[in-house]
Amino acid sequence: MLRTPTGGAGSGTATAGDRLVSIGTVLNQLRDEFPEVTISKIRFLEAEGLVEPRRTASGYRKFSPEDVERLARILRMQRDHYLPLKVIREHLDALARGEEIKLPAPGRRRDLLEGPWEQDEAESPPVTRLGRAELIAAAEVTEAELAEWESYGLIAETEAGGYDADAVAVARLVADLGRFGLEPRHLRAVKAAADREAGLIEQVVAPLRRHRNPQTRAHAEATAKELAAQSVRLHAALVQTALGIRLQ
Fold first, then answer.
1. Distance between CA 184 and CA 174 in Å, rounded?
2. Nearest Cα residue to 57 out of 17, 24, 14, 19
3. What is d(CA 67, CA 73) in angstroms, rounded to the nearest whole number?
4. pLDDT tens column, 35-59
5. CA distance 246 to 73
6. DSSP string for the chain
């Protein structure tokens, strides 16, 4: 059950503004039912447009009881039905229009988690492995280029052998950067930074992955995806900020 603030004798006449609470209070209200929820998680859902708290003149978030209940509904859809955010958004929009929604049976993790969290699992193609020649053709690169990128650790085969879709994306990006004169040796620092960020994320989710509750272990994968997305946004913002300073 959600814990909601209670008032005294005059609480029945409280205005909407009096019932707005901070993000820390929201966290406390949600944690009874969702012990793994974090402030970062709430901010991520806000960044994705799933909840829109009000802002004070100083920029602080203020959440209404309706915002808190909406967050709880979102978290239940993720935890119990393993729905991606796009589907959750569609369900919330349908509810706002007064329409009935049909949720999948709880616990159908294998059916709903074939693709990455926060993406369109229903529209994403199944994950397939590519051979070396297929990767070269898909990325439109040469054998020599691929061999050089592998020597710098920018691309590697999966543990099961072959290359996945991420390898194609990395190859195309490395090739594009090469057209600007950035060679693989220049990108070693980028790879090292990515490995450090991945290690940091792994430290956060490792306790969740070891949890006895299968739903908590599944939530670890969602958390890893969210942290990875936030890390990418932060990296982009820091690069843009640094370039802006240098160009002034």
1. 8
2. 17
3. 10
4. 878 888 898 889 888 999 999 988 8
5. 45
6. --------TTGGG--TGGG-B-HHHHHHHHHTT-TT--HHHHHHHHHTTS---EE-TT--EEB-HHHHHHHHHHHHHHHHH---HHHHHHHHHHHHTT----PPPTT-HHHH-SS-TTS-TTTSPPP--B-HHHHHHHHT--HHHHHHHHHTTSS---TTSSB-HHHHHHHHHHHHHHTTT--GGGGHHHHHHHHHHHHHHHHHHHHHHT-SSHHHHHHHHHHHHHHHHHHHHHHHHHHHHHHHHHH-
User: Helices 65-81 & 85-96, crossing angle to 10 degrees?
Assistant: 130
- Taking alpha carbons only, the member of 199, 176, 185, 181 closest to residue 153 is 185
Share of the chain above pLDDT 70, in %: 81
> Closest Cα partner for 62 from 52, 50, 54?
54
Residue 212 dihedral angles phi and psi, to the nearest 5°: -75, -30
pTM: 0.48
How far is 37 from 219, CA to CA, in rounded Å?
10
